[in-house]
Amino acid sequence: MDTPADDMPDEIDFSGGSRGKFLPPAAPVPAPTLDVARRQAADRLLTIAAAVHAAGIEPMTMQEIDAEVKAARAERHARAAAEDGSADES
Question: Residue 89 CA to chain centroid, in angstroms?
Fold first, then answer.
């Protein structure tokens, strides 16, 4: 009867950079199920909505939301460009 050890070579060639790569990658930590994640997101949204309503903040239109998103992206791009520019000067 053959055993798995019978199929193993006597010498292992590490020239291909395979040293330390014989073990399979660790299993990922299981994430919460989709239902739990959805419930948590809904709870957070309702908490925020209640706080916004209590503060008397008017809802934003889609145009206002789009403008806010564009402004935030432009600010982020400007900061990234400034950081890249300062890194080039060193």
Answer: 31
Which residue type, as a one-letter code, is found at position 85?
G
Give residue 6's pLDDT: 61
Is pLDDT larger for residue 22 or for residue 68?
68
Q: How many CB atoms lie within 10 A of CB 15?
A: 6
Is residue 12 assigned to a domain?
A: no
Place of tokens 């990922």: 28
* Inside any domain, residue 81: yes
Q: How far, in Å, CA of 58 to CA of 6, rounded?
A: 74
Distance of CA 85 to the CA centre of its chain: 27
Q: Is residue 76 one of the residues assigned to a domain?
A: yes
Distance in angstroms between the alpha carbons of the first and the last residue of the chain: 67
Query: Total domain count for the chain?
Result: 1
- Rounded Cα gap, residues 66 and 71, in angstroms: 9
